[in-house]
Every structure is written in C-alpha cells, then in structure tokens.
Amino acid sequence: RLPSVQSTIGAVDQGVSVDRRAFLRSGVVVGGAAVVTGAVYGTPWSSGPWSAPRETVAGPYGSLLPVDANGIELPPGFSSRLIAVSGRPVGTTSYRWHDAPDGGACFATEDGWIYVSNSEVEPGGGVSAIRFDSSGALVDAYRTLSGTRRNCAGGATPWNTWLSCEEVPYGYVYETDPWGVRPGRRCEAMGRFMHEAAACDPVRQVIYLTEDRSDGCFYRFRPEVWGDLSQGGTLEVLVAGADDTSGTTTWVRVPDPTPSENATPTRKQVDGAKRFDGGEGCHYADGTCWFTTKGDGRVWYVNAAENTYGLTFDPTGEESLDGVDNLTASAAGDLYVAEDMGNMEINIITPDDVIAPVLRVNQQDSSELCGPAFNPAGDRLYFSSQRGTAGVFRPAHLAGRA
C-alpha cells in the first residue's frame, strides 16, 4: 500500500486515510448546498493513467438504493442532509444562500471546518461560506467575496485561502479568505481569460489553471513568492501536439497575461499551445494534476513529477460517466467526478479501473452537480445541485426571495 495521498481540499498537509464505506453520510445543496456521509478503502492513485478499459459496475460502496427523502439515490449505509437553498436563510442564521452555487472546498478550523462555495451569476457572483462545528452542526454562514462575475470553480491553497475563478471573457482569479476576515484580492498575474478551476502543486510551487472555452488551454502559474500571490509571478501555457492525447509537457511563458479586450487573448499568444475542449475542474495530489474537459467528456492528467500528460478517462459511449465537470478526490486515492446534467451523478473512478456512481440526484435533470469537497476527516462529502428543481439560474435581483 502506498502512502495516503495528501489532498489540497480540506486541511492541507493532512493525508487522511478513510474507509470507503464510511465516507459519505450527511450533506446536499439544492440550488444551494448538500452533504452526504459514508467509508473508503483502496490504494492511492498511481501517477499515470489507468491502462485497462473502464468498467461500469457496482462501485466499492455497492449499488445505489431507491431515492431518499431528499430525492437522492445513495449506496447502503449512506444518508443525505439538505444544508442550504438559494434565496433562503442558511439554518438559523440570517444569511441567505447565494444563487447558482458552483465550485467549493472545505477548510479545517480549530473547532470544525468551513465549506466555501462560488456563485456563478452575473451580475453578482462572489463567494459564500458555511461554518460547521466538530460534530458537523451548522453554526454560521456569511459572504467572503462580492462584486465579481460568474464565479465558477476555483481551488484551495496550502496557506488556507480559496482561489475563486471568474468564468467570463477576460476574467480574473480572486484570492479569498474562508474565515471572511480579510477582503478578497484580485490576482492579475494569474491571467485574464475565461477561468474555470485552479489546483495548487506545493512540491513544484505552481498553480494549474483550466480555461472553459472550446479552444481553451491548460496553464500553470509560478508565483514569485510561494504563499503570497500579491507578489506576482509568471503565467505559462502547456505546448503539445494538436491531436496528441499523451506526450511530454512543455511550458512556455504567456507574453501578456492580462491583455486588454482588444488585444490578443492569452490562449492565442503562444504558437503550439495545446487546445482542450472546455476545461472544467482540476485537482492536484501526489505529483499529478487531474482535470476534465466537458466538450469531449474526457478526464486528463498532467504528471508533474515525470513531465508527461495523457488521458485518465476517454468515453466510449458505454460508461455511466457523462457531462464531466468539477472533480475532487478522497485521501485514500479515488477520484470523484460531478456531472453537468448527464445522469446527475457523482461518479467514482478507482485506481483499479472501476467507474461507478456514488450518488444520483432525481428530478433535477436540467441542473448540474458541482462543488464536491470532503471535510477534513474525509467522512462527509459536500456538493451542490446548481439549478435545483427549477432548472434555471435565479437572477441576482431575486437572491433575497425564497
């Protein structure tokens, strides 16, 4: 058995080994946020792709049972809890949950944890947070970033901040404080483009970035000072063969990372930049960054330790995994991929080539699942159904109405 993978989600530098059967038992968000709890066995990821054809079978938790009271299908021994609904007060707090929740992450506190969530609306956007005590009880909810545009996904940093990404042309990354004490800060050096997600590599001290365009690129940012993004840095883009699905990684500096709207976009500034069809979520662990591309339904990897890239999942039309979007991982080594529409599932991809749903949301076919994140102990999985039962974004001006 290899050492436990250290996840950038939750308490950084804590490699928590979790029993598969104990992981999922308590949390769901409808047009807001939710949590599920259960357990995790298994070896951590290897640093390359799985080689065998994918199997769509009952997963390590078992087959899904009929829907529970929240309309969610779960494996035996798992349960769900509705935590927040857009436009309504969160728990007993006076804070109303934001519209169109998207990417999220958990952060350890001295007495529990915080779940942060982006709001993918425009105008509005921003980030909200929900604080839990050590038992998982909700104790507070508040805003941590306002006045931004279509905050989609993002990523947690090893210094316990949340990078929130604007999914708009010429959008920015904002560094935010999950505790809500320090104001959000725009990170201009991380590039001005249609950002989707971010993942930190503490070994090489770089941040990987995806771009949600059909001809988007995959970037990495090298800060001047690791742990202080205000000092600027260098934005680079992955260069590789246009039609290649594997090979060696070559990184080239982007000449103008913050172009004006009438200048050449970042993705077109470097000859040979590798195109990815709609970059979505990304997650770093144990020397490798995984990311999804929704246009072709693929899951890619960049092996930073060996300077290679390739495919972890390439759809054949027979698998259950569809509409790949946000993703995260358990500390024990399984990848969790949320679906944008599709079957409204969060699917597991195991190191032994099994793909299977670990949960399915019913009667919300026009929504998408997003923001999957484990709490620091790894026994609760938080996620959102972005558009809920309505199947549409709620306009920002209706945010205060139930």
N-to-C span: 49 Å
Kindly provide the radius of gyration, computed on alpha-carbon positions and rounded to a whole number of angstroms.
19 Å
Q: Provide the structure class.
A: mainly beta
**Main β-sheet: number of strands, strand sense, barrel status?**
6 strands, mixed
Number of strands: 29
Order of helices and strands: EEEEEEEEEEEEEEEEEEEEEEEEEEEEE
Contiguous runs where pLDDT drops below 50 for at least 5 residues: 1-18, 37-56, 395-402
Mean pLDDT, to the nearest integer, reads: 85
The share of residues in extended strands comes to 35-45%
| Silhouette | globular
Please work out how many helical segments DSSP would assign: 0
Q: Helical content, roughly?
A: under 10%
How would you portray this structure in words?
The protein is mainly beta and 402 residues long. 0% of the residues lie in helices and 43% in strands. The chain is built from no helices and 29 strands. The strands form six sheets. Strands 3, 4, 24, 25, 26 and 27 form a six-stranded mixed beta sheet that branches. Strands 1, 2, 5, 28 and 29 form a five-stranded mixed beta sheet that branches. A five-stranded antiparallel beta sheet has the order 14-15-16-17-19, with no helix packed on it. It is globular. The model is unreliable at 1-18, 37-56 and 395-402 (pLDDT under 50).
